[in-house]
């Protein structure tokens, strides 16, 4: 059984990384062809029609070469690789487009790395949902809201987007948030799950080492600061404020609910851990048995 799981793990990880890298590489070359070789009518066609032709041929090839789960993995990975390449191209344009390019690179890497990390650390829970592309309607509404704010502010208040140091700070927040979250996943391994567990499994262990020695919920902390970093990249003051409030409220409720089950799973062992290590997100203390929340 373990051999089969390992094969599935490396197979899914290989398919995902292969098509992600192939798409990112091919589209990066086509999009930057004019910058490197100069602008001619032939290169103009390569630059603007090449990506569209490639995506059509890719989808056609995948439909006849892969079936079922591998096809779904390859399709999403190729799409995220294409988004990464498009983001790289945008970073070569004006300051505002550069910020948006960095933003969609952060989105692409986050969703791809989520699937890739689960494939390597906890393949038994691996599904198409591990990409978190269908996280929730609210998630994508929030993303669209940030795009609208950036567009409106770029048009009416272009000077607001000139503070490039804020974009740089946002990139640093996204990178550090990603690192913390992925370190949490690779530390917890099979004990990590995208869904709050309500039933203790036989092999479920309390992880207190590695990044968990510094905060009880490093994956949530990483996601929290990553989400704020995306708005720092775009220099979106309104969405930054809203993201902070909404994300904090979301993780407060989720951590409280999750720790109710963790206390029931591990009893005093978890209560002692709570006393020694914070949640990682400011002003969120989590669940305490005598807490009347």
Automatic annotation (TrEMBL):
<dbReference type="InterPro" id="IPR025770">
    <property type="entry name" value="PPMT_MeTrfase"/>
</dbReference>
<keyword id="KW-0949">S-adenosyl-L-methionine</keyword>
<feature type="transmembrane region" description="Helical">
    <location>
        <begin position="96"/>
        <end position="118"/>
    </location>
</feature>
<keyword id="KW-0808">Transferase</keyword>
<protein>
    <recommendedName>
        <fullName>Protein-S-isoprenylcysteine O-methyltransferase</fullName>
        <ecNumber>2.1.1.100</ecNumber>
    </recommendedName>
</protein>
<dbReference type="GO" id="GO:0032259">
    <property type="term" value="P:methylation"/>
</dbReference>
<keyword id="KW-0812">Transmembrane</keyword>
<dbReference type="GO" id="GO:0004671">
    <property type="term" value="F:protein C-terminal S-isoprenylcysteine carboxyl O-methyltransferase activity"/>
</dbReference>
<dbReference type="GO" id="GO:0005789">
    <property type="term" value="C:endoplasmic reticulum membrane"/>
</dbReference>
<keyword id="KW-0472">Membrane</keyword>
<keyword id="KW-0489">Methyltransferase</keyword>
<keyword id="KW-1133">Transmembrane helix</keyword>
<keyword id="KW-0256">Endoplasmic reticulum</keyword>
<feature type="transmembrane region" description="Helical">
    <location>
        <begin position="223"/>
        <end position="246"/>
    </location>
</feature>
<feature type="transmembrane region" description="Helical">
    <location>
        <begin position="73"/>
        <end position="90"/>
    </location>
</feature>
<dbReference type="Pfam" id="PF04140">
    <property type="entry name" value="ICMT"/>
</dbReference>
<feature type="transmembrane region" description="Helical">
    <location>
        <begin position="12"/>
        <end position="36"/>
    </location>
</feature>
<feature type="transmembrane region" description="Helical">
    <location>
        <begin position="48"/>
        <end position="66"/>
    </location>
</feature>
<dbReference type="InterPro" id="IPR007269">
    <property type="entry name" value="ICMT_MeTrfase"/>
</dbReference>
<comment type="function">
    <text>Catalyzes the post-translational methylation of isoprenylated C-terminal cysteine residues.</text>
</comment>
<comment type="similarity">
    <text>Belongs to the class VI-like SAM-binding methyltransferase superfamily. Isoprenylcysteine carboxyl methyltransferase family.</text>
</comment>
